[in-house]
Amino acid sequence: MLSNYDALDIxxxxxxxxxxxxxxxxxxxxxxxxxxxxxYSKDNSTAIEVSYISTIDGGGQxxxxxxxxxxxxxxLFTASTLHQSVLVFDLSDIKKPKKITEIDIxxxxxxxxxxxxxxxxxxxxxxxxxxxATGFIAIYDTKTLKEKKVFxxxxxxxxxxxxxxxxxxxxxxxxxxxxxxxxxxxxSVTIYNTKANTHTNVEFDLSDNxxxxxxxxxxxxxxxxxSFSQDVEPEYLTISEDEKTAWVxxxxxxxxxxxxxxxxxxxxxxPLGFKDFSIEKNKLDVSDKDGKIxxxxxxxxKALYLPDAITKIKVDGITxxxxxxxxxxxxxxxxxxxxxxxxxxxxxxxxxxxxxxxRDEQLGRLKITKxxxxxxxxxxxxxxxxxxxxxxxxxxxxxxxxxxxxxxVAKLTMKNSKAFNQNDSRSDDKGSExxxxxxxxxxxxxxLFVGLERTNGVLMYDISNPKQPVSLEWINHEGxxxxxxxxxxxxxxxxxxxxxxxxxxxxxxxxSLFEVK
Length: 517
What we know:
5% helix; 35 strands; 5 helices; Methylamine Dehydrogenase, Chain H; mainly beta; four-stranded antiparallel β-sheet; single chain
């Protein structure tokens, strides 16, 4: 099973030369005369050109996951599960990247889940050999590759990020239970004050009244014999430009937490609610056994957003949060919330055609959660809730939905049947699984990149108007499978003086570089 990782968000303010071209007819050239299968566009007013530069072969499946770049040394640092190390590459010649060495993380733990770079420092989020025990943050010098500092984080640090000025380093500590669900550590966020050289953990201890209030707003808390602080599993985070606030995805809880960074405390929790698949713009393919790609609406079928990556943008002075709504479920030997629609009992009043829709070529194959939907507690299901919204969403900082891409990801990728939901094999599960995010500003335009784990490739959008994003391209390099991490090297820091999109692909173990201008 592919693991989940975060994507880094970078805003680039340096102006660049506009190259005008017709996006509709644009074909993304891939090295050695290979081409991207498809590039789609609705609008050519943004005039953004994306061209392939090179690919790094990390050595196989799980060889690369999350990457970041040091401008001082022109080095790329990549978390590697396969090698249990951080891979270090020289990007001085960006067309011919070279591997320099590996940073061994075995003295601290068994796996490095994320890396973050700031001014000559590379920080690594490292999980303990005992996954439920305290993890570690290790900071190394990007030039000498020597250890500078190591300190404890929470259990299973999964994503790490520096604030804009480097005054803080934050880690989202997932705190997953063991397979038997007998040990469930607290989820937490570690905040390291780089100036004071102090660190603290923010936990999610709520009173019963507080938890009940959030549940009434749609918060999920359902882990086996777990308090809410044990139940939360912080996945990704993004930090405000003023370094005062962090927003943290609580994926399995279908919520975003707001953290006061300066005072190291929880401000509030924002439940995200549900997506309605009875609406035309949200039509989806729910079966991998119907022998075709078809998008339909379904009554009484909803989805939990369950975001993976999160990033932020600021437009006209207003901060917006963007989520990649991958979807995730709890599926352990000791507790599983998963079921297929064919396996459950449906309320025949609500679903008079229950037998028909429970066929494999109808709704029968779709995976849903058993924890929601029995409204009257009579043992049958009145509503169905799937995992993941198969989209990206834009929210305000109060948790209100500003925009959701509906089924546009499906519509764009279904033009290539082999790419769609991984050759239709994931239609019964979570679809294309939007996973990674990155942003860039070019001459007043805000551009969003969305990595699709189960479809491969990266979608590019103009989100200058957060209420009306415009799809631009589908960047899909042959051989790259399952993008896990995205970030952009700004032109003023990159080796070739151009903005460079870096795509780390977990399944293929490749890192592909694209010029964006």
